[in-house]
Fold:
Amino acid sequence: MPKKKKKKTVTEIKCPSCGNTDLDTIEWQEWVVVSRKLNELTEGTLLVDGGSEKMDFESGKDESLYCKGCYSEFPIPDGLDVDHV
Ligand SMILES: [Zn+2]
Structure:
């Protein structure tokens, strides 16, 4: 079996501004598309279903990390595997 080229593994998340590596003070942020069903349009009022909220993580974009230590945003490191749990 041919040996697969191993991709770079990210071993820590580090804020480039202040050097913070504490995951408790770093947050993930992304723009998420929320789709809602339209119920009806009555007398100029559009009724939008509030219960069918659907988070579409696949189309999440502009993802970044946010350091609460120095209030700055920084990009997600290359090669980082992300699982939404
Ligand atoms: Zn920071």
